[in-house]
Amino acid sequence: MGNPKGEEQRRVLLLCGDYMEDYEAMVPFQALQAFGVSVDAVSPGKKAGDICATAITIKVESTDRAYTESRGHNFTLNATFDEIEFDEYDGLLIPGGRSPEHLAMNASVVELVRKFSDSRKPIAAICHGQLVLAAAGAVKGRKCTAFPTVKPGLVAAGAHWVEPDTLSVGVVDDNIVTGVTYYGNPEFIRLFLKALGGNISGSGRRVLIICGDYVEDYEVTVPYQTLKVLGCHVDVVCPKKKAGDTCPTAIRDLEGAQTCSETQGQNFVLTADFESVDASSYDALVLPGGKDPEVLSLNEDVIVLAKQFMEARKPIASICHGLEILVAAGVLQGKKFTGYPGIKAHVVVSGGTFAEANPIDRCVTDVNLVTAAAWHGQPELLI
Q: Residue 72 belongs to what domain range?
């Protein structure tokens, strides 16, 4: 998709707060940038460079409790709330999680949302983010959906409730776009881009993502959902696993130590059987990082697939530690690439040229090979 506004870049405000839902903040943040939209992430009482802690909610099937929550990534804000100039933005996006409950009580936030509503600029809210819209009087007389437990508050605020039959539903009423959960991020983001004036046509491309246990959380989910926004068919596979099986993910953050911290993230649900993968039926390959590449690099079937994509000169995107698979495949000779700084010593023997990962969001392109130092560079990687 080109820039929705043509020559003039669209600019969106992402309204954040502590313990907002992890995917509902980062996936739109990076996906919108990949599609040419400038995104300023702000939170009341915080400045550019400060962080908001995110929350990961996971459904618990075996108990009466619907969801459990764990700590997610540290989301770094890139703008200061007190310096917002309303007229500079074309749209507003509000993630869900627990933060909307508190944002809805902040007078400055409510006044800001009311300005967007009165101006009829596009507003997108997902999951519990609609609570902020209700507080600002922005849902009265509007059709909207949300996470089911938000229904009473929206109905009380005068909204026309749309009952979601799945957790992926998106609803549009004039300038208001609402979604149920991050499972529906591809449709939610697509609808918001359309509201901003974008014109997304389905690419029809088929993309393969190979991952394993403890793949980096963002490095599998952001490419997967962003490519689906574009209309790509995306299959995510893991050796010895089938469609419907899961891979636990790892949350990795740079927090001032010599290397990144790590905790367990979501369980990513695979979409296809590894045994049925045929490289000739795909147009591109994505290799996320995390812990899994060092194990995947020992799997001969994975190595064969990597070689087939490279020999066919199909696009290959490697993020962070994904290079370890390409090193094992022996396909980096004469190539220029980047990756996580900690694996430099491992990959310099590959016969290629390692570009220093400074800054950490650096990306490098060499013919059909696109590499990113870490998940921070995914907006550029996915362009």
A: 11-196
What total number of domains does the chain contain?
2
Give the model confidence (pLDDT) of 225-235 as tens digits. Answer: 999 999 999 99
Are 94 and 123 within 8 A, CB to CB?
Answer: yes
If asked whether residues 141 and 188 sit together in one domain, one would say yes
Give DSSP secondary structure letters for 258-313.
SS-EEEEEEEEEP-S-GGG--GGG-SEEEE--BSHHHHHTT-HHHHHHHHHHHHTT
The CA distances from residue 198 to 2, 6, 295, 379, in Å, are: 8, 9, 41, 17
pLDDT (mean) for 242-266: 86
- pTM listed for this prediction: 0.93
In a domain, 5, yes or no: no
What are the φ and ψ backbone dihedral angles of 247, each rounded to 5 degrees? -120, 125
What is residue 263's predicted lDDT score, i.e. its pLDDT? 85
Do 236 and 106 belong together in one domain?
A: no
Residue 188 pLDDT class (50, 70, 90 cuts):
very high
For residues 327 and 307, what is the distance between their CA atoms, to the nearest angstrom? 11
Q: Which of 6, 2, 4 is nearest to 194 (CA)?
A: 4
Amino acid, single-letter form, for residue 284: A
Question: What is the Cα–Cα distance from 243 to 229, expressed in whole angstroms?
Answer: 21
Active site residues: 127-128, 320-321
